[in-house]
Amino acid sequence: MTFFMKKQVRKIFHRQPQKYSLLGAVMVSLTLLAGSVTAQNFPHIKTFGFDYVRFADNNGALLDSLRWAANHHDWVVGPKGNWPLQGVDYMDTLTYNTIKEANPNAKIMKYLPYHSIAPTTEVWLENWCEENGKNPEELYYHYYYDTTISLSNGNTLDIPGYGGGTAENLEEARVRVRWNGGWVGINPSSQTFREAYQALSLHVITLEGTTDVFADGLFLDTFDGMVNQANYTSFLENTIELKDIGTKDEIYAQVTADMANSANELKDFLIQKTGNPNFRLQANPAVPRYIYNTFSDLFNEQYRNLLMDLTVEYLVTTGARINDIPYLQQIYDDMDNGRLFFIRSQTNFGPSTEIPFEFTQFALSTHYLINHENAHFMYHYGNAGNYGGASYGNLEPTHWHQNMEVNIGVPVSRPENDYWAVENTDRFYEFASGNGYNILAREYSNALVLAKYSRGGWANIGTNPTTHQLGGDYYPLLEDNSTGAAVTSVTLGESEGIILLKNPVIGSLPRPQITESSFAINP
């Protein structure tokens, strides 16, 4: 939502905050859609879907699921096309046309891993090198000494070194990363790698059979692992290419700069090739502690102008706890400073595990706590190995929180202190606190949202309930988007949230049928 649009909606809510009905919600939704070609699907929250699904497998239910995604997300991220033998996932016409016909305003973001590359993708990059007179080994770092690295699954991997170790050639000595069982790591310092990856990225985002139709963005997954300075897990000081630079800190500082600059160079390249000045390059540094702790050297002010688009892969999971609250502040401050975020929360458990509704409300309430014009949100009922829902199944029950369809309005200012101890803001604030817990709140024109942070953990959800007065009548939003009877107090257990409506008849927002005329601006 643009600042102008946000300001106009605020005026509507401030005039009659208690009389904003279903008709009013629909009218605002239609106004936003008619007034801008970048209007979002729902006026109160922007959403994206990490829809890692092979939609082109058939023309039936999976494509219906893709149409659903197009009508519920502002961005559809990572849709799978057909898979050619080399494993490179191009943008096929069936996927593209299905999305754009369902919702011409939906944006498509293709997916590529960055600091580690799939073995099949290696083939594409190495073939490009051979076709362009480049040495394929310049794509990678190589160990000089024999090196043992620790993998994310707890195992270790022994890699021979070339020159000072037991490797017989450079290929054996390629640096591996701790993710994905030890996939080969990239060399962002290499111009050969940068040129090859630019060619790969352009191939991936180009619509099959065309030279002038492109995706709207590129999602760089596993972006930051080469610069894990906190634990030095890649042992880059052992590499042929880097060992003589200096100290460990100097080596990792060099790689950090190369990662940031290579990503920015890639973004500039794709903007130029697509002719789209708004093309997004979304780097995924995973969880907030990676952004602000483990990889803080990469995501601090020094490289902010190079890495403006970030993804929070796991904001709320069943492990979310009171110690995570400072990250909510940091993310919000980052967005206030212009950084654009994709923010995803997940349950940690996939179908058919029954997730307490109060916990899904905790996740959604947290999204509303930091809702911002620079944020897109995704709710995921599943776990990291379950991106595509139930075995590439229907996305609706796994990639969507139904309560998002209820328009809670826009944040409103209040005279008391927010969590930053500042008066007269519309940011989140401390609603209540006690021994080992803190309830955060944010007021919207149509609702009050609450989320209780405590120990975290699946076994603790709902434990140690506490009751708090609300200071007026509110109507709890229920799982089916209806409202419960008026309440004047609320009881919340650990890792529980609630959305309390100010009006018992808010209703859900039907998705208007989008046609070309929907985007006409009336004089």
Q: If you had to describe this structure to a student in words, what would you say it looks like?
A:
The chain starts with a helix and ends in a 22-residue tail after the last strand. The protein has a domain at 116-207 and 218-267. It is an alpha/beta fold. The longest helix is centred in the middle third of the chain and has 27 residues, at 248-274. The protein has eleven helices and 18 strands. Helix 6 packs parallel to helix 7 (248-274).
Q: What is this structure, in a nutshell?
A:
The protein is α/β, with parallel strands linked by helices and 523 residues long. Helix content is 26%, strand content 18%.
Question: Which helices and strands appear, and what pairs or packs with what?
Answer:
Layout: H1 3-15, H2 22-35, E1 48-50, H3 61-70, E2 75-77, H4 93-102, E3 107-113, H5 119-131, E4 147-150, E5 156-159, H6 191-205, E6 217-221, H7 248-274, E7 280-283, H8 288-294, H9 296-299, E8 309-312, H10 325-336, E9 340-346, H11 357-369, E10 375-380, E11 414-417, E12 423-425, E13 429-434, E14 437-443, E15 447-453, E16 466-476, E17 487-492, E18 497-501
Parallel strand pairs: 1-2, 2-3, 3-6, 6-7, 8-9, 9-10
Antiparallel strand pairs: 4-5, 11-12, 13-14, 14-15, 15-18, 16-17, 16-18
Helix pairs in contact: 3-4, 5-6, 6-7
